[in-house]
Amino acid sequence: MQAQTLSGGFADPATQSAHAFRCVMEAMARPGTLHDISGAKPPAPLSPAAGAVLLTLCDTETPVYLAGDANCDAVRSWLAFHTGAPLVGPSHCQFAVGTWHATAPLSAYPIGTSEYPDRSATLIVECPELIDIGAVLTGPGIQDKAALSLPDVAAFQSNHALFPLGLDFIFTSGDRLAALPRSTEVTSCM
Amino acid sequence: MTEYNFAYLDEQTKRMIRRAILKGLAIPGYQVPFASREMPMPYGWGTGGVQVSAAVLTPEDTFKVIDQGADDTTNAVSIRTFFERTAGVNTTTTTSDASVIQTRHRIPEEPLSAGQILVYQVPIPEPLRFLEPRESETRKMHSLEEYGLMHVKLYEDISHHGHIATSYAYPVKVEGRYVMDPSPIPKFDNPKLGDMAAVQLFGAGREQRIYALPPYTQVVSLDFDDHPFEASKAGHPCGMCGAIDSYLDELIIDDAGGRMFVCSDTDYCEARQAAGHMGKDNGGKDAA
């Protein structure tokens, strides 16, 4: 138990988090593209990709909401040891982690204010699989169109309608990651 | 190099900057406040760009720095050396070899590719600042999308000068929403901002703002139907390489009013000269 809490972080934080950030940044800059991210071994049910994102972006300044099964002893102590991030409910979080069903409803999260749209939550959504087939994405960062296996379509359309307010999403599955910022327009594949 | 953390900044600072970069990419053109740190160089020497570069660099990157297009000016040389020493990254002056390019007031002539990141040094990130000094007001104007004042400024240009006289830091509208200051690049470079394959990040150290343009973002220079935007440059070929499509600096070369025009992008100019192009002040076979 304790060994699991203390291990699984970045062995070389400066360079590993630099590489991990570039993955996340490329994913956010090019919505729908898939990236492999490595270096973290968080306790179940967190995926290695979600663990790496948390290690790269979270610290004592970022309230985190652990949704559903992610809110277990093993994850809580791992996150506390490696990041020191305070755990909060969805209404005050900067980052949230969990499956699509566990993180619902999206109305619970801060979407920013019209003067500070950046003060909004980023959701790290754990997906059973992540492939570049599915909903069609267009918008900034996408040359023509992209496709991504999103867990829903309507929810991301209403999130986009809030622009410049809204939530940003990082999807994780195993070692894989993709992102969907609020600026992306989503249409179902048909 | 061992005396410093990788790329100088501590990890907590880098996380804070990285979070700001991600929000900036998610809201193209919106200025994200960040807790800018003191850097071992004065404000006005690119501290914003340096902090953004420090947050995105990995040890495998190849880094290029340009100052007004030149690789060999004081600012460019000192920032390049700074990252050679604190991050141990390889540096280059060749645009196509670089994965991260930090720039002061130019976009390289050579089109950038998808693997590259362009980091701008920004002095005043707020395009409305000289029209409205209060941050509380400009913030409200951005939130209400109230940009009439900017058009009034451009209109006054026309009524004074007969044309839009703003020649650098020419305001743009991003994805039909935020009006953004592209940093003091010449308006010649404005058309390159939109639909660029590379990621563009903007860092203002003293003003504590980060903003971003994801690749292939729609960026429109503000103008009027009867006074459309025009990307202007000096109407000469480069004196050294003969290029007619590059942005030129005017150099005074004697006390008798002699002058020459040369490419501001030194890498572009040198590559053309190496390929055998010679301008009229340099042997002259490409002289117009």
Walk me through the structure.
The complex is a heterodimer of chains A (190) and B (288). Chain A has helices at residues 2-6, 13-29, 48-57, 73-82, 100-103, 154-161; strands at residues 35-36, 64-66, 95-99, 122-126, 135-138, 146-148, 168-173, 176-180, 185-187. Chain A is α/β, with parallel strands linked by helices. Chain A has a single domain, classed as 3-Layer(aba) Sandwich (Rossmann fold). In chain A, the strands form two sheets. A six-stranded mixed sheet of chain A has the order 1-8-7-4-3-2. The termini of chain A are far apart. The model of chain A has no long low-confidence stretch (mean pLDDT 95). By secondary structure, chain B is an alpha/beta fold. Helices cover 26% and strands 17% of the residues of chain B. Chain B contains seven helices and twelve strands. Chain B has helices at 11-26, 47-56, 74-86, 135-143, 148-161, 190-193, 266-274; strands spanning 32-33, 62-67, 90-91, 100-104, 117-121, 172-174, 178-180, 199-204, 209-213, 219-221, 248-252, 259-263. A seven-stranded mixed sheet of chain B has the order 1-9-8-5-4-2-3. In chain B, strands 7-6-10 form a three-stranded antiparallel sheet. In chain B, strands 11-12 form a two-stranded antiparallel sheet. The termini of chain B are far apart. The mean pLDDT of chain B is 94. Chains A and B meet through helix 2 of A and helix 1, strand 1 and helix 4 of B.
